[in-house]
Amino acid sequence: MKTEKLKQNVKGYVHQFEDGGLRLLRKGQKGVIHAIFSRFGLVLILLLLQVGLLFSIFRWFGNLWPHYFGGSVVVTSAMVIYLLNSKMDNSAKITWMVVVAIAPVVGIPMFFYVKSNFGHNILRKRLLELEDQLRGWLPQSQKAVEQLKALEPGAASLAKYLYGRGGGFPVYQNTAMTYFPGGEAKFEELLRQLETAEEYIFVEYFIIDEGLMWGKILEVLARKALQGVDVRVMYDGTCEFSTLPRNYPRLLEKLNIQCKVFSPVQPFVSTHYNYRDHRKILVIDGRVGFTGGVNLADEYINHIQKHGRWKDAAVMLEGEAVRSLTAQFLQMWGILKEPEYEHVSIGLDENLTKMYSFGRLNPYNPFIGGFVHEGINIGTFKRFKNTQTAVYSIMISDEQYNRLNQIIHKVEATSQEYKFNFVGLVAVALHMKIQRRRAFYCAEFVKYAMKKAQIRNNLPDIVKPEDFLNLENIRLEYKGALKQYKVEELPTLNVANL
Q1: Domain-located, residue 168
Q2: Is 89 among the domain residues?
Q3: Residues 179 and 255 reside in one and the same domain
Q4: DSSP SS3 for 38
Q5: Across the chain, what does the average pLDDT equal?
Q6: What are φ and ψ of residue 170, in 5° steps?
Q7: What domain range is 59 assigned to?
């Protein structure tokens, strides 16, 4: 598809074409959200919080100031001794000692919160699970190992580690490598190879920034996506600090390009600020792969100079070794696996006017929830009629249907006594179960109602919406936009719809 045809297809949400490249952002477009989540915004918020805290202390606890000062000196001294004797890196010790000395009330709790590595541990657990799966996909050729031992014993030991404890990546033969001494040479060859894509293009980079380099690459990706090529893009969450706005994945999705952000940084919440995706990988059809130190930003091809002339190397692989690059991309893509469904309801009629669950009481406020009577033209579904939905059915007896109906309307009649289990919903994401008396989130309530109605199910203790797909005798009746659902196009059902 030619560029002119692409322009017609994306007219309205592509703001600018420059040098043959595609732009999704206006020059200087960052937005308020980007400013808040930028380095400047984060530092500013921290400083303001610190000033506010100190002001509050002086104003409200002025009489206790000597006690506070004496206590903070003791606590800070103890904390400094603890840091000096810790095994962390010296630069990290100095940083934390400065933070603790300046603002002990904020700094000490922050240190132990970050030290817990909560978010890091969750990601690492998921990564180890995927590594175990990966070993079966990438078998090691013993012939290649023996030949490497004969040529270079030291490299053979390293290869053994990479396949054993290093993630299950084998050593390969039958692979051609092209070395690029700079970003300019890589960029030129990359554009040529992208034009040959027929099945898929996988892009995973630490830094992506709009400009000449990414613009030309994006133009090819957009054309290929419209031709039916599976195009996936993934970049590190720190790009939200300085290069791309928070809504950029949605802009790419308008071009039929799937996009994920690895470990987006959430101020005051994230404990894995330093757990970053530094990879620079691009795979085309599993036959050509690029890696190295060159990111997708104009300074890497010296189109602009932020820090003087930039010098970074890259390589292109052609052959068997591209399998590992493909596996690495899919591995990281799998870590960021998103739930297929975010909400589940029980439907008692084919018209979907009698649906019941626990969810938003106000369509505009996701934080206030409880028992809800839902339908296509009421409540949250009326607000979000373009949302993608699926209607499944299970065969139940008349007796089970009547019990289910009674249970639901009993809860409805006493709905003020029930609460939304927001804490339990958060715990599900952490693979934890927190059950509260007379409190449910959506999947928890559907499971409860089915159990009370004596409808047989194999649902797990920590239940999520997608778990209902594993019910026995479940059947898909409709999948698509909610507003396009038409009951007359469905077979006659005497079932409960989920």
Answers
A1: no
A2: yes
A3: yes
A4: coil
A5: 80
A6: -85, 170
A7: 38-115
